[in-house]
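Private note to self, pasted from the team thread so I don't lose it. Backbone tokens:
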């Protein structure tokens, strides 16, 4: 089936930062034409006049089930939030809760123009199935997710098989939760498996000063230095989430490997973790991408907010308005995330690339007058401006409505009932 997206302002997110007025044609799930005045007949035509067409957002770090915990543990730092609020609630989670949380998050992400999610949580099979039901492209974790797992080749094979049985279209990513929750054997096994099977690898790293300080006290090195000493980065594509407290030596280490930084600015601000040195990472050639983190430490799944913060926090902290450009920031939300996850055909509007696309309506008071297309996306737009979300060539959201069957009221009711019960059992307010 051919779909013509006609008359859009196309923001390609390519090497040349191309912005053109024109047409995009999608054949099944692949972009087959980008240019002007497409003449051939198509099965479907989407009028994109007055709209920006961008690649779908790639969320490289999320814990979608945690939408159930949204707005709990406010005004607490990471340690108190994690140990006093989240862990008691997580201990009470039932299989249905993972489905509810992931479906709620999937709806929010689709509504907000996120087309790919990397989800890192327990019961990854249930999460994978939920994303598959709603059509979201997903990268699903296996590995040392809680730090309690006993890992070997057989166990990781089992985890992978369970995820792929639940959603054959899911991609696998190896996950070690963090150096403070995983032992050396778990870190080594997750890295070994990723290297052997040529799969990407991810971990929380240097998120808080407490984590860095405790690591230095225990091992005499930073978390990045400790992971290097274990051979964690050897021969693998590794995404390090947060990296708020990395120093020059850490940057020099990371430059030696195929490492990528997933920045989660909203979460880092809400939990008082700090502001990551994004300008330093990018100036040293490291690939920076974006994540929302879980909705419990962010309270939303809004990539427009993440882009705004990523860009403007660097300007404010460094007193340098040119620290990041809007073009760089938009790429962090799209093509950079795709590259970090190992896709070579995603995150750009280009012939041969997968058709994960988002239309942004310019007919909003916050978008006019339109003086700079890319700045408008990064600094002015919000989820209410998303007109269409397409994943793998299928329109999932259009003009305020989902294109698949979903009873939102029933879902909201179930989520509220479950979190009320979970809070009561866990004695969390």
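Design output:
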């Amino acid at each position: 089936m051919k779909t013509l997206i006609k008359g859009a302002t196309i923001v390609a997110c390519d090497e040349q930062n191309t912005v053109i007025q024109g047409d995009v044609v999608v054949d099944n799930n692949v972009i087959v034409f980008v240019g002007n005045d497409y003449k051939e007949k198509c099965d479907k035509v989407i009028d994109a006049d007055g709209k920006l067409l961008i690649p779908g957002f790639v969320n490289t770090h999320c814990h979608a089930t945690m939408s159930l915990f949204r707005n709990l543990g406010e005004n607490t730092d990471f340690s108190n939030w994690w140990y006093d609020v989240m862990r008691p609630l997580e201990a009470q989670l039932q299989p249905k809760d993972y489905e509810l949380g992931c479906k709620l998050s999937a709806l929010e992400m689709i509504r907000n123009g996120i087309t790919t999610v990397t989800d890192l949580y327990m019961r990854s099979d249930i999460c994978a199935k939920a994303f598959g039901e709603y059509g979201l492209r997903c990268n699903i974790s296996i590995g040392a997710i809680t730090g309690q797992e006993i890992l070997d080749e057989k166990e990781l094979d089992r985890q992978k098989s369970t995820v792929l049985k639940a959603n054959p279209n899911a991609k696998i990513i190896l996950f070690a939760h963090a150096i403070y929750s995983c032992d050396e054997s778990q870190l080594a096994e997750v890295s070994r498996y990723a290297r052997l099977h040529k799969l990407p690898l991810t971990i929380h790293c240097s998120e808080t000063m407490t984590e860095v300080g405790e690591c230095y006290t225990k091992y005499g090195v930073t978390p990045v230095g400790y992971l290097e000493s274990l051979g964690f980065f050897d021969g693998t594509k590794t995404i390090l989430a947060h990296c708020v407290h990395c120093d020059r030596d850490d940057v020099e280490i990371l430059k030696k490997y195929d490492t990528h930084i997933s920045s989660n600015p909203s979460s880092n601000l809400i939990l008082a973790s700090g502001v990551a040195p994004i300008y330093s990472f990018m100036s040293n050639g490291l690939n920076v991408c974006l994540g929302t983190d879980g909705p419990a430490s962010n309270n939303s799944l809004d990539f427009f907010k993440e882009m705004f913060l990523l860009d403007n926090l660097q300007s404010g902290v460094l007193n340098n308005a040119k620290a990041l450009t809007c073009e760089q920031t938009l790429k962090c939300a799209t093509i950079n995330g795709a590259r970090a996850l190992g896709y070579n055909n995603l995150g750009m509007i280009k012939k041969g690339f997968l058709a994960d696309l988002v239309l942004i309506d310019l007919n909003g008071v916050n978008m006019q007058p339109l003086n700079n297309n890319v700045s408008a996306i990064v600094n002015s737009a919000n989820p209410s401006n998303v007109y269409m979300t397409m994943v793998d060539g299928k329109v999932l959201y259009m003009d305020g409505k989902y294109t698949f069957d979903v009873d939102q009221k029933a879902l909201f009711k179930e989520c509220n009932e479950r979190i009320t019960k979970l809070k009561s059992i866990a004695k969390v307010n």
